[in-house]
Amino acid sequence: MKGEVQAPAEIDVGDATASDRLANGFSSDGDVKKDVDQLTLEDIREQIRYIEKAVATKELNYITRVIRSLTSVRRKLNHNVLRGLVQGYFPSPSPQKAYFMEFLPEGEVQAPAEIDVGDATASDRLANGFSSDGDVKKDVDQLTLEDIREQIRYIEKAVATKELNYITRVIRSLTSVRRKLNHNVLRGLVQGYFPSPSPQKAYFMEFLPEAMDTDCAVSPFRPRSGKQNVPLLPEVEAYLHLLLLIFLIDEKHYKEATRCSDLLMERINMTNRRSMALLASRCYYYHSRSYELVERLEAVRPFLHARLCTATLRSNYESQAVLINLLLRNYLHYQLHDQAFKLVSRVVFPESAPNNEWARYLYYLGRIKAIQLDYSAAHEHLVAALRKAPQNAAIGFKQALHKLNTVVELLLGDQPDRSVFRQAHFKAALQPYFQLTQSIHAGDLGRFSEVLRVHGAQFSADRTYTLIIRLRHNVIKTGVRRISLSYSRISLASIAEKLQLGNAKDAEYIVAKAIRDGVIDASINHEKQYVTTKETLDLYSTREPFDQFHQRIRFCLGIHNQAVKAMRYPPKQYNKDVESAEASNQ
Fold this sequence. Notes:
This protein has a 3-stranded antiparallel β-sheet with strand order 1-3-2. Helix content is about 65%, strand content about 0%. The longest helix is centred in the N-terminal third of the chain and has 29 residues, at about 30-55. By secondary structure, the chain is an all-alpha fold. The model is unreliable at about 1-35, about 110-135 and about 210-215 (pLDDT under 50). The protein has 30 helices and 3 strands. The chain has 5 domains: about 30-110 and about 120-130, no CATH class; about 140-220 and about 230-365, no CATH class; about 370-470, no CATH class; about 470-535, Arc Repressor Mutant, subunit A, CATH 1.10.10; about 540-585, no CATH class. One of its GO terms (cellular component) is proteasome regulatory particle, lid subcomplex.
């Protein structure tokens, strides 16, 4: 990597929001101008919400907040913004709209008011749509450095006050910070936080060679002016190290990423502090990810086991949840299902783990149960994982969940919900599984074989091929059931022809097994080689409705119990405060 200047990771901005596009430094005049107008409309809409809230609650503080923001909003007003507001808030045939439109004729697009930007901050320059490549790129990098400095302040505050909620906030912001990382930002962080003659700085600079293009270099970043002699907190150093590791992974420098992650693990192992636990959990994830990308995932298994033992002894629930999921992923990657089941049976997943970790754990548990033929338990775990997963994010994870859940439902003899296949995010990914569902519903063995032939590679990549092979018996059962409903008497040769079986003998075995399993109510005449179907009984006279009702009630009770456990109650001190307030009033 010596002498190379790494460009920022290429980002697909087709669905990016205005904030994301600005944050990533897109400096085309039309794009930046359009995005700035959109951001201005969003800001004004937020101010209008404050006004509505003030009217509803009679709290005039919201109006005060709106008035204070008038100065910043004023700088961003232009012809397009005002027309957008009028068209958005006034109904089409209204005198108010006509009155406003007299002052805003269509087609006369006015340029934004000229503003003296000599002393303007980076935020002001971006907000006013300055689209010079150097200026916008420089300002975006400067804003990113300021954002990261704010996150580091949260870390320092968490260490000083022992409030881990600040660390949680930093971890949540990793996704947005990750999109803005580039070579210049990381060099600015290293030069700003590490003193000049230090082994840590030299180590970081090995992965960040000096930039050849000085036009994009940011202004000197000195977040620790006057504190250079104060040693850097281990948590802050781990956070900066983690940002470097994420950057190397995004840039596809996987060998350097594994070396970087090894050194990061050494630094974390040297520190035994509670405030390091949350950061360490994210570092463990990216350490495993870096080895997975170089196809050496088995190499980190002993390390993960050792760290899990340490986390369990120290009651470090955050790291414990992450490490259990990483080990399960490791085992399932190499199809070591027995070892994965032994791990699940011997560890207790922490109840206080975040929903994201719970969703991963339930997904892995559902996969293990499906391999062990316990389809009912697998279905319960997968449905619970879908409920724990983020609603508007993690699309790839939810696609994998729906793929596995579709196969499990088919193995249970149920029909998956058709609306899932119509959702925009899942339609393309679940198309092979939709065709699979149709072939099983029709009981067409030939169509099922054709789907396997066409989409076999996709099923193997999704690691569902082994389970789908088991569906062949379900296809045959469905075909036998449809035949029994259509014919009161049919020869075994005709059944073999309809099911595309080899001969009548195979059809006789299959029909006999279907009768034994209760799939159909029929009898076989072995001498004359035909099947007689008995009259269909009323479904409501069987136990099936009771079982379905029981399953749904149990599901609702489970949701209720989890909702009660997730409720937050006021501390005990709250009751004392209420009693003292009532006593003083009396």
